[in-house]
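[recover] target loaded
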């Protein structure tokens, strides 16, 4: 997997993006605390910027943290796949 430059998508440089396949980009969040709805809304904004630039791209969230069930459902409804990994 190749890291992408977040500035290409008009995102802050601290945002970590990985090219999984040519048509799949993962937003990487390595945090210890639970991902809550406020985080989910920010993730959706990031995904929208990615989709604006690359409309047919699948966007997923790769994280080590637990995801709140309400947030998990919110992200799934908006087409964001959640991949829990250990890195």
């Amino acid at each position: 997997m190749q890291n992408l430059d977040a500035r290409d998508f008009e995102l802050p440089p601290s945002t970590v993006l990985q090219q999984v396949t040519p048509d799949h980009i993962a937003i990487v969040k390595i945090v210890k605390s639970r991902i809550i709805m406020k985080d989910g809304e920010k993730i959706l904004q990031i995904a929208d910027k990615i989709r604006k630039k690359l409309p047919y791209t699948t966007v997923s969230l790769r994280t080590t943290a637990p995801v709140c069930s309400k947030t998990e459902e919110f992200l799934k409804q908006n087409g964001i796949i959640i991949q829990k990994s250990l890195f």
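[recover] notes: The two ends are 12 Å apart (CA to CA).
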